[in-house]
Specification:
The protein is α/β, with parallel strands linked by helices. It is built from 10 helices and 8 strands. Strand 2, helix 1 and strand 3 form a beta-alpha-beta unit.
């Protein structure tokens, strides 16, 4: 991927854990300078990645460059995930922090994120549980649905799987990176970490009103997130669990079929000729859901034991 390099931080610190903040920016000329100014005192280096912006984002970022701030530019818009990867590639910190360039995530929570990393967390999420009125109502509904699905799939409580403020050790990125291009990245990364048995900690944070125009398309991005959840749920599930999940899907499909037949007969004929179909429908779907839950629990325990063994062997 082609990108323009503007400045590289040349300072060094070896006495403590260094922190690198990655700020992907696409047409965020208003919010970007505010983010850099706010985070400057909380981290060791800031890496801005202008993802082919068409406004004054690159010029605004250039004015922020100093001994702690580096700026890279993609010649064409390649997506938020590509910008994050470029930032991580050039980061020198022990801990990587992601944030957005729209000034929605306050910098004052950085110490809390780092503290959880030092305690042993593999992935720390800034859960947007305060000032949620700044999130549009439709988006809040979507966040609740996707966080519920992420919780169900991963078997651990996740309150905000889509947050853009997150921290992890530098060496964890290759393990947590997922195939994605847009806003589904955060959800997919969170569920992957959980499915692989890594320790996830959430820190409640304030969420502020964004600076500039939102690029989120609730329908398009919502569909992408849903597909991403199913994708990571399948790809990161063990073979044993998949063997349990397969018959559950068959039961649910048969249940839906008998339910549709019963509904069709009731609407068109006024009477259900197969009287046992409604009971069969409920039974098959219930058994299917229970088998899915069992498969997910087995997978969670297997991966958790793998992580425990991994830690003990170090």
């Amino acid at each position: 991927m082609e990108h323009t390099y503007v400045h590289r931080n040349s300072g060094t610190r070896s006495d403590e854990m260094r922190t690198s903040l990655i700020v992907p920016a696409y047409n965020e000329e208003k919010g970007l300078p505010l983010v850099v100014k706010e985070y400057l005192e909380w981290v060791d280096e800031i890496i801005i990645v202008d993802d082919g912006s068409t406004d004054g984002t690159f010029a605004a970022g250039s004015k922020c460059v100093n001994e702690k701030v580096s700026l890279f530019r993609h010649e064409v818009n390649s997506g938020k995930v590509a910008a994050l990867r470029t930032g991580v590639e050039h980061a020198r910190g022990d801990v990587i922090i992601f944030t957005d360039a729209d000034c929605t995530y306050p910098a004052r929570y950085v110490p809390a994120l780092i503290q959880e990393i030092e305690k042993g967390a593999d992935l720390v999420l800034g859960a947007r549980l305060q000032s949620r009125n700044n999130i549009p109502a439709f988006n809040r509904l979507g966040n609740a649905i996707f966080s519920f699905l992420a919780t169900y799939i991963s078997c651990i409580r996740i309150k905000d799987s889509q947050t853009g403020l997150r921290a992890f050790r530098r060496e964890m990125f290759d393990k947590l990176d997922v195939k994605a291009k847009g806003l589904e990245f955060e959800t997919k990364m969170t569920v992957r970490a959980a499915k692989l048995g890594y320790k996830i900690v959430e820190v409640p944070i304030e969420y502020r009103e964004r600076v500039g125009k939102s690029k989120l398309n609730p329908i398009r991005d919502g569909v992408r997130m849903l597909l991403a959840l199913f994708s990571v749920a399948y790809s990161e599930t063990s073979l044993l669990s998949k063997m349990i999940l397969l018959p559950s899907i068959v039961f649910i499909l048969i249940g839906l079929a008998t339910g549709f037949i019963s509904l069709y007969e009731k609407v068109t004929l006024g009477v259900i000729s197969h009287e046992f179909y409604p009971i069969l429908t409920a039974f098959l779907i219930l058994v299917g859901v229970q088998l899915i839950s069992l498969g997910l629990i087995v997978d969670y325990l297997t991966k958790k034991l793998d992580r425990i063994e991994e830690r003990l062997s170090k």
